[in-house]
Amino acid sequence: MFRKAYNKAALAVAMLLLVSCLINVGSSFDPDSLVDNIVLKHHAKLLEDVASGKLVAEEEVQEVAEMTPLPGYQCKHDHHLSGVMKNIVPKIDKMVAQSTPVNGGDFVEVAAATASNRQPIRILFDKSTLDNDKYACYTVGQKVAVGLDSGSDSTRGLSSCSGSDDNACIYTCRQQDLLTPSMKRLITDYILPTMSEVFGSVILVDRNEPDVLKFNQDIYNTFSQQCNYGVNVPSTYVTNGAPNTDHVVFVTVRPTTDTSTIAYAMPCNFDVRGSGFYGRPKASGINFNPSYFYNYVNKPTGFRYREYVRVGIHEMTHSLGFSNFFYNSFTTSRGARYNAASEIRRKGTSPAGERFNAKKFAIVSPNVVNFVRDHYDCDSIGYAELEDAGGAGTSGSHWEKRTAGEEYMLGFVSPLAPITNLTLSLLKDTGWYDIDYSHSEKLVFGKNLGCRWLDQCSDNTWNYQGYFCTNNGDVGCTATRMGKGVCLLGYGSLKPEYQHFKNPRLGGLDSVADNCPYYQVYDEIDTSQYCVNEEENSTLEATVGEVFGSNSRCFEFTSGGDRVRHACWQMKCNGKNIDITIGGQVYTCYDGQAQQTINVNGMQLKCPFGGLAECGGRQESLDVAGGNTSSTLFANAKLTFALMLIVLCTYIVL
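Given the sequence above, the corresponding structure tokens read:
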């Protein structure tokens, strides 16, 4: 489940812990990326229909225009799934215990993978519930039940919802909760087809013979013939099946008690091969929170469209297998079962001299391990860490933010999260899918930074541009140069594995990244922006030729003094070199040069230190305490006040 996190940066952790701001790092829109081109194609069709009046009815326009922006997101997949599976799993285990195993072993034989026969996955979105859903909002003041268990329609004893209530309750519909005709069209005619085409471009599955997907009868009954509460699944999916389909998704658009939830998804049909041993998911349900789309239908910008599509793709990826519910059901190419997750130990000594031996969970499946070894340039690593922060809803089924930085399967995700081979390798390792890796997107964060970078976040292991910061309030380009970030530090009680300074109480404000301090984008701070967000062009600094857009990146420069400043300029990889366009003129930064500067109309452009990872270059280490890649934020009173509000908000929540 997603909660928005970039507009409300400050969230609280437990008393005595460091105050934490849940923020995010942007990723690139790549015009050569098949995924981004699919998204752009569907967004262009959306804009055409908006211009012609096909999307928003005339009577809806004024209401939509009055809505205000909403907060950012956090995925709570594990929390939502566990709430459903706590009743489902015992029923499955009882069913298994009363059944007769096949050949004295598994209940369904596992066929060896036949990669050559696999074809692009075909997803059927069942939208029938949208036509008459008693749990959706159609009028202001309408009362609807939320948070019910699958198979339960009883509202007896439920009280009115109060705030972000995880329990079932009675919700009062607001204007922004209404499932309007335009919202329904936005989701069904644009967002869902985009998601389907993206999945079909990268994921391959075995085709049934005959080519019909039939639901598992026992699981169908175990879920009370539903997929999410009130979503009745027709029996024909069991008896006749769905032709020319590999996965069915039941779609709802309902309010949630947590107003910062954009969407959530969960599987609801799969084969059972034994106790705790499941086959490839056949069906799932996905719900979109209408309050996030109500305002958007009147101003469907490309930046937010890409964000909302990736929210849906993130959630569906959980349903396809990236979930701790399925880790123990992964199979090898020979059909042998194995557990893809394992407990690991992170051992070491903090910069403050405190030793630690911390337990974490990680993915140890073969293709994931091969990817991380190559990506980070660390042959000794044998796992990819899973997130351990964010509570029960986030930890366990997401990558560790400290190491994955911007990947689309983080628990706290940026609007432009790339669909990379890190997650696609995990889907490959399920044994259920093959992957067309040529259509994935780049993971730039941490590229080629080595084992020491993975092991410990400190000023002598993360000493690369954008990765480690030491001065609270400094502005600097983010590690991937996708935006202008801010360094936020604070004091608190930190475990040794979360200590990154000699002062054991000092750390970064982002507890999801293990309090590792690095430059990140905050919407609350005016000078902290995504360079790839074309919507920011209204705020550009024209005197330095600044341009925001898909090909723009953040670079450092000086002008009339030693103070380092930052600008978003268009760039293009020229081999490993970087061509930067400023004021219509192209300037080239050459790979492998540690301190190259270029005179640009009286400015001194500071080229990336060593090289740019996005172009295949290798960054070189630098003195992170030297102040040569950042500028102070506190000289601006307005920005200082914004920072104070972020920290104050965190303490208020505590």
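Confidence is low (pLDDT under 50) at residues 1-29, 61-71, 101-115, 633-654. Try to locate this feature in the token string yourself.
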